[in-house]
Amino acid sequence: MTDRNFDELSKRFARNIYDSPKGQIRLQLVQEELLAVCPQLSAGKPLRILDAGCGMGQMTVLLSSLGHEVVCCDLSETMLAETKALIYKKHPGQLPNIRFIHSSVQDLAKLLDGSFDVIVFHAVLEWMAYPQQGLDLLLPWLKPQGTLSLMFYNIHSLIFKNLLRGNFSKIDEEAYRGDPGSLTPLNPLDPANVEQWLLAAGLNIYAKRGIRTFYDFMDETMRHKKLSVAIDDVIRMEKKYGVIEPYRSLGRYQLWHCKKLN
Length: 262
Description:
The protein is of the alpha/beta class. It has helices spanning 10-18, 21-37, 58-65, 77-90, 131-138, 155-165, 168-173, 191-200, 231-241; strands at 48-52, 69-74, 98-102, 116-122, 142-153, 203-211, 253-260.
């Protein structure tokens, strides 16, 4: 098994994720949480940031527009091209504080120089064949007292959704891995395992938020593009309940912020 490369899935990814209400909800919640729990990003001091698995570049655009030096990398050459296109659209002419790297996490050691104040690692871990190894390879690039912004696909949300749908055979077989060509990840993750990995690597988790704690469980008619409830109201409720248990633990994604202790 190898890490998922989105070269052939980029158009479908863009349509199903970012051109949909669930993508809009995810992006707004994630960006607002990142700025809220990492005040250093808005303090005016330029930081060095690694956007590992930059996808379609939304986080790189946000962080570079705040004046930070951003190194963005992705295994998919197509996704990296999408990032460049988004940056050029938002900021005509390439911003001087962005470096693009076409690389897997495993090969970054050959290409990076120096460490980072912040590492953004969003929705990548679950697409890796060996998630813990991927995390362990990335963390040495984080400075002492640096911040890791980690978002990963939550297996408990997937189990709960299958329970609601009566897909009991899938649960009995623990068949949670996405099929080839599917947008369900290779390795939906148990937050308890991820927490163990982070603590063992010397990180302190100081903020946790569930992303899409209830939206993915809503009736399909409520989740249509023309929502019968306003998307702003969905986001308002997600903000409120995304940090409250038990709702937080049901989030389709878990967004955690961690400090490297030494």
